[in-house]
Amino acid sequence: xxxLTREGFERNAVAYxxxxxxxxxxxxxxxxxxxAEQELAQLIAQPNSDQAGPDLLETFYGHITVTGDAYLEAVxxxxxxxxxxxxxxxxxxxxxxxxxxPVAWEHxxxxxxxxxxxxxxxxxxxxHLRLFHPANDYDGHSPxxxxxxxVDIHNAGGAWTKSxxxxxxxPSGALVYSGAEALTEEQRAELKSDxxxxxxxxxxxxxxxxxxxxxDWRPMSLSPADMDxxxxxxxxxxxxxxxxxxxPMLLGIPGDATYANYREANSxxxxxxxxxxxxxxxxxxSGWLGERVAGGxxxxxxxxxAFQEERAEQWARIDVASFLTVEEKRRMAGVGG
Length: 337
Prior knowledge:
Elements: H1 2-10, H2 13-27, E1 30-33, H3 39-45, H4 53-67, E2 69-77, E3 80-87, E4 92-96, E5 102-109, E6 112-117, E7 126-130, H5 143-146, H6 148-166, E8 173-177, H7 185-199, E9 215-219, H8 224-227, H9 229-244, H10 262-289, E10 297-300, H11 308-319, H12 326-332
Antiparallel strand pairs: 1-10, 2-3, 2-7, 4-5, 5-6, 8-9
Helix pairs in contact: 2-4, 2-9, 2-10, 6-9
């Protein structure tokens, strides 16, 4: 996973932007209490002394988007959960019990190893949220794994472009000597050195080559037009965005005609990618801490601009429903009663 993260996230602009968009958008959606108890919602809003709720959730969502796994640790004092922290997935290892299910976790930082076990009442201090993986019972499936080949193509295209620029923005070729006598080793070395100094690199781009003595330059590589190079990179970029669930239109990638306009693409992004992830986190946290910390949480969509129009339509339908009481309308609108 380390190499995949470096190549797919740290060195690929498309995947990096997809992860940032998903993590930041999901973290902007707050949690509200699903019932009368507010303790869990308040804990998530201020999980520890160093982070606010959105900061912790952005890290949490970022990990699950990149690696397919995300971990939260609950720190308790006298049986009461006081703080929440995100643990890096690459430092976690599931310790399996006799039936094959995780019974504890091993958290490794350098040479230091910490074993996290269930408490006496069965409560696990660690919550593991993962994306579906059909062939692994312990780890989630990373979107980067699904887009690995597209990432390789996109990165190779960038490396090829840089190499082309470094070589005076021309494809490689062969310098053919057709003289009567063969070149000596000294002449070969001198000719190669002259080419490196005077004709290689961006500063020498476009410099004409003066050939004499039976020398002839013959290009050998295919041109970018022959390779349809730009479209190949755009196709790879669209495939990467598809794996993450981000409409290519939102990333400025040409060639995508799935949505009629930016608003439709943005709405699809929130509805099909961001909202399911937020709901998954809300269910996981509520099920994990619901009994230890009073209350449960659900996604609070009131402040999400992408859903404002739909919320207004919902309120309008509720308002004209004459068979509902005022209290019932307030509950259906999500404002209590």
